[in-house]
Amino acid sequence: MEKKLRQDPINIVKVVLFGPESTGKTTLSKQLARYYNTVWAPEFARDYLQKKWNNERKTCEAEDLIEIAFGQIKLENKLAKKADKVLICDTDLLETKVYSEEYYGGFVDENLDKAAKKNQYDLYLLTYIDTPWEEDDLRDRPGLRLEMFTAFENALKKHNRNYILLKGDKETRLKNATKAIDKIIADKENLSSFSDSLLI
What we know:
GO terms for molecular function: nucleotidyltransferase activity. The protein is of the alpha/beta class.
């Protein structure tokens, strides 16, 4: 089980979009992937939970979270091999851990908890709640946006994660995100590139 939650070793810059639902994470993930001409790892939970809702008319349950975590890491590891120096992740296991704690009275699967703490990323982009709420089948806490945001920021602080807070319109967020990512890229050597692997 532990192996299914472990990141494959690869020398790339990993950036996580982190924060409550409906705060522009997916939009910015796509923008950043275009900017860096690389790939982005979508949120596995969205497809998983949408199918569950469509087929069973059921929302997320505590036991779904470990399956979501497996799917997320599998997706991340697969796409990391196709990345060009930078992988943009629309979420990570720490985000799944925060949701588990907030929705299920502090409960977190032991394996998920361990992996969320162990897996490493270069930068977290914490998205603020100054974006309009967009309703869908899965989103359910429009009245608790600030409380959820605080839970996410507290998790980053508690686990000493490198993060910046992103506020403002799409252009401002993109500008501030790329500025921070560019600094990390400049400090790293011999980053893996999918285009390089094609030449071997």
